[in-house]
Design goal:
Elements lengths: L5 H7 L39 H14 L6 E5 L2 H12 L5 E5 L6 H10 L3 E5 L15 E5 L11 H10 L3 E5 L4 H4 L9 E5 L13 E5 L2 H14 L5 H11 L2 H20 L5 E4 L9 H7 L6 E5 L3 H10 L4 E2 L9 E4 L12 E5 L5 H15 L4
Parallel strand pairs: 2-3, 2-4, 4-5, 5-6, 10-11
Antiparallel strand pairs: 1-7, 6-7, 8-9, 9-12, 11-12
Bound molecules: pyridoxal-5'-phosphate.
């Protein structure tokens, strides 16, 4: 399938060989245990270790992450379960780990946990490849690119080269891009990690995560961690995720095009500052993004004058729900400052662009900006 286009690969990803009278995508298998006599052997023994519905999904994600390679994917109950599996299975007391200081807002919780276990945690911003400066002697470098919510993009190949030269492993949180937008393993990373709660599944109705590795030993460590902590996805969620992957390319194509259209419209608006979208040629992330990304994602961020203006803007939108998370087919937006975790201005808006018609979305945003700024 590797020579085929993204749409063809997405609709067929992970499907088993056709069997007469069987469904194309077998339904979810609900099982805590499986028939098992004699010595425990075979692929399915106990429900915390393995499940055929996970196997299909893991193959599908692997095919999207690395079309030309033999890789191993492990699915988890959430993105945080996947992130923790890499960091906590790799880092030992006395090791150093490098994290971004502008990544997903639960990373500081993980930092505190690592430090409590005697791991030294160093942080630096994503932009300007600033993590290079604190890399020396580290066990693992964690990248999040594009970063959430600032949308900075680092040069993954450059960071990987420096990290590997010093024996440091590299993991990339690929949540914002999805494997259609960026393939971290092809860029040299050892782990491609994502919250599949977002664009991968795209309907805002399930939590899920995954880790994909090229190296079987690293993959085994991640899989062992899932067994130890039991952070397993439910079969129904795994099946829904696989079903959603069939429309990944369609959704992604529309959402990325809409995001660019919205960013272009926002760029012309006087009330908007700090506009960020990696696919906008004027964006500080653009040069890195075009070198390593195949699509630029569905999230746009920008700043309005203050908290009140941002709140008026959000409540004046008709087609866009005020909600957290991102990557879904229905547009959402939120004032990130309300959570208190991100270093952003009070008027900072993270806008997750959905699959509506671009003209409708842009018109809705323009009327909400006019209302918020008193121009209407
Ligand atoms: C970049 C990034 N990574 C990881 C996560 C965590 O994912 P989950 O909520 O599925 O645990 C999020 C959630 O917003 C995220 O934005």
């Amino acid at each position: 399938m590797s020579s085929k286009g993204d749409g063809t690969r997405a609709v067929r990803a992970g499907l088993p060989e056709p069997q007469q009278y069987e469904p194309t995508l077998p339904g979810p298998v609900f099982a805590a245990h499986y028939h098992l006599s004699g010595e425990p052997a075979g692929p399915y023994t106990y429900g915390r270790d393995s499940n055929p519905t996970w196997t299909h999904l893991e193959r599908a994600i692997g095919e999207l992450e690395a079309p030309d390679e033999d890789v191993e994917t492990t699915v988890f109950a959430s993105g945080m379960a996947a992130i923790s599996a890499v960091l906590l299975s790799q880092a030992r007391s006395g090791d150093a780990v490098v994290l971004p200081d502008d990544g997903y807002q639960a990373l500081p919780l993980l930092q505190a946990q690592l430090e409590a276990y005697g791991v030294e945690v160093r942080t630096a911003p994503t932009g300007g490849d600033a993590q290079l400066a604190v890399l020396e002697g580290a066990k693992l470098l964690w990248l999040e690119t594009p970063s959430n919510p600032g949308l900075d993009v680092c040069d993954v190949r450059r960071l990987v080269e420096a990290a590997h030269a010093g024996g440091t492993l590299v993991a990339v949180d690929n949540t914002l891009a999805t494997p259609l937008g960026q393939r971290p393993l092809e860029l040299g990373a050892d782990f491609s990690v994502a919250s599949d709660t977002k664009g991968m599944t795209g309907h805002g109705d399930i939590l899920l995560g995954h880790v994909t590795c090229r190296d079987p030993e690293l993959a085994a460590g991640v899989r062992r961690w899932r067994k130890v902590v039991g952070a397993i996805p439910g079969p129904m969620e795994a099946w829904l995720a696989h079903r959603s992957l069939a429309t990944l390319e369609l959704r992604n194509e529309r959402q990325c095009a809409n995001a660019l259209a919205l960013a272009e419209a926002l760029a012309k608006h006087q009330a908007v500052s700090g506009l960020r979208y990696p696919g906008l040629p004027t964006d500080p992330s653009y040069a890195n993004a075009v070198r390593q990304m195949r699509r630029f994602g569905s999230v746009v961020s920008f700043v309005l004058a203050d908290r009140e203006t941002a709140e008026r803007f959000l409540s004046a939108l008709h087609l866009v729900e005020d909600a957290t998370s991102f990557g879904g087919v229905r547009s959402t937006a939120e004032r990130r400052g309300r959570w208190g975790g991100d270093a952003v201005p009070e008027g900072f808006i993270r806008f997750s662009v959905g699959a509506e018609d671009a003209a409708d979305l842009v018109a809705d945003v323009e009327q909400a900006l006019a209302t918020a700024t008193g121009e209407s």
